[in-house]
Write a structure and sequence with these properties.
single chain; binds adenosine-5'-diphosphate; alpha/beta; 10 strands; binds magnesium ion; about 35% helix
Amino acid sequence: MPPLLELVDIARYYQMGDERIAALDGVSFSVDEGEMVAIVGTSGSGKSTLLNILGMLDTPSAGRYRLAGRDVQDLSDDERARARNQQIGFVFQSFQLLHRATAQKNVELPLVYRGIPARDRHERAAKALTRVGLAARMKHRPFQLSGGQRQRTAIARALVSEPSLLLCDEPTGNLDSATAEDIMALFHRLHDEKHTIVIVTHEPSIAARCPRAIRIVDGKIKADGPGAEVARGAATIALGGAA
Ligand code: ADP
Ligand code: MG
């Protein structure tokens, strides 16, 4: 089976006046279906830029990105938007929930965009919320939920359209450490259920809890290996991995 996602020599440049900033520079790696991978690096290292490219929210300046065997750069804008809606679930640091909508309505939203009938939507949202342990909180609005419950709601929203890939940008960044542990435990459970998960983080302790981690420094990959080893700086680039 081909990898679920494959990046070859991806670059992303920003022109700032006379200066060209290389947010990403020659990034190559693959992720197989069912993997749980952390992308770890300090602030400004290029993590969000990379995640935006993986999520087809941004286009690389150079290089090739293949998702589920298809070359993303060959897709039209419409095809790309459709692929994004069908294949990718996003989880953000700031949850990005609608404040006036219940947890249930928040989770239903991606299904509204996909034209799924109301009854089906209710059922699928209830199922997704049950999977993240929020069956008893479906009618709560975000301000009536704890930080961890808000992030669970956002994870249910990401899962409800059954994406092939979960992309998470600093998903524990706004949570206290005990709640962050809970959310990591939930990601581990989803990983056990064969979901493919990419987690961007600046925290080595989060990377250490992932089976695989990729360290990014100044837009370049500096290590790719078991999360615990990458987190303590013991791993470099695995054979056959990124150059
Ligand atoms: P991280 O998420 O790891 O903190 P980013 O991917 O946001 O890093 O940024 C990587 C680098 O690219 C930084 O030096 C940042 O200043 C630069 N950068 C990001 N977005 C833009 C932009 N829209 N315009 C110019 N420079 C940018
Ligand atoms: Mg960032």
